[in-house]
Design brief:
The chain has one domain. The termini are close together. It has a six-stranded antiparallel β-sheet, with no helix packed on it. The chain has a four-stranded antiparallel β-sheet with strand order 5-4-8-9. By secondary structure, it is of the alpha+beta class. It is globular.
């Protein structure tokens, strides 16, 4: 006869993969907080006169249930989207991409550009995306009407990419090895970045919590009856 602990181990071994399978069948949401400190090496933005300046951003991504499209919206402050939002040239936006590859956060290594949505390379080629200024072929971004910064949105489709595809990069994205990166005149290698961090669907957490609660109750009953 198995003891209560053994029963709980066996049930957990079945329950956790079930929760994971439910998660993979659901849309996956990622968030990214873009900072200077996540760049490799970290950046310290300044004006051309050496005065400090500030840049940062936030982004949300949604991978659809079929895992064939990754849609995103990003808002960035302190980076000049038009070249005329500020008088300082250092903050001018040059390119914006999603980088993805085998290098994990904390590895000290950058990942290559996997998909571009501002400047070059521009890989958002499907017509279901709203491309705006300054060139509908190279930009998914819109500048703020006032202030310095702007918003970007787009959809990375399954077979799009810069020498790769969303399909090929899905394991890296789900592993947390992808980041959104904004490149400026002062920092052509990237001024702010944020890693895509997944936030599982509440239903998957609920399934796991319910199952673990049931396992706890089973173990309690078996201990009382022992």
């Amino acid at each position: 006869m198995f003891g209560a602990g053994r029963w709980m181990q066996m049930a957990a071994a079945l329950l956790v993969p079930l929760a994971a399978s439910r998660l993979s069948a659901q849309p996956v949401t990622f968030i990214a907080n873009l900072t200077n400190g996540q760049e490799i090496p970290p950046t310290n933005p300044t004006t051309v006169t050496g005065a400090p300046r500030t840049s940062f951003g936030t982004a949300m991504f949604t991978l659809n249930a079929a895992h064939t499209q990754l849609a995103f919206q990003a808002t960035v402050w302190g980076i000049d989207f038009t070249g005329s939002q500020s008088t300082d040239p250092n903050d001018d936006l040059r390119n914006a991409h999603i980088h993805s590859g085998p290098n994990a956060p904390g590895s000290g290594l950058n990942n290559p550009v996997a998909w571009g949505f501002h400047g070059m390379p521009f890989n958002d080629l499907f017509l279901d995306d709203a491309n705006t200024i300054p060139n509908p072929l190279t930009d998914d971004c819109t500048a703020f009407a006032s202030g310095v910064g702007g918003m970007c949105s787009g959809v990375w489709n399954l077979l799009e990419g810069n020498g790769t595809t969303l399909q090929a990069q899905l394991p890296n994205i789900l592993a947390g090895n992808a980041y959104i990166n904004f490149h400026t005149a002062q920092f052509p290698g990237g001024e702010i970045r944020g890693y895509l961090t997944s936030t599982p669907e509440p239903s998957s957490y609920a399934l796991l919590a319910t199952g673990l609660g049931a396992l706890g109750a089973l173990g309690w009953r078996r201990r009382r009856s022992a």
